[in-house]
Amino acid sequence: MEINEFCRKLDRLLGSRDLRGEGLDTAIKALGQGLGVSGGEIALFLADKGNEALRFLWPRGLQSSGSIPFSSKESLAARTYREGRGTVNNRFSATRHASIFEAFPLKEQGGKALPIQKIISVPLRHSQGCCGVLQICRKAVDLTEAGPDFTRAELQDAAQIALVLGRHL
User: Model pTM?
Assistant: First the structure.
């Protein structure tokens, strides 16, 4: 399915649902199917401007795990939020990053904790500006098992999807 059509369908799907509530599971399922990843390979962060930090909206199992300060130098999510632009990293496991959240076994991953090998990170925006971050990753024991590299076209697709999600936050 072409990205414009996917975004239109996602927008209609979320039109009557609260993305912070019951619409979240629906959105994650659609994203996983559309992007060819599991629910445990998608992360949604919301900006908590009062505390100057990002908090997990998805995966649900990480919602109470803490927050990531906007100023964090080792967090790709924080950098994406600060800079307001997307990035793709197909050697993420070899990049210095805050990996504490990768240690949590997630229900969305069958109760396993797997390292992120490859990642796309894009800002979520709504009418008041940047409101969070969408990350899509490939998790595996090692890079050889992680599947194909993400492409620039997939980064652009993720940015379009993030615009749709941002409208529903």
Answer: 0.90
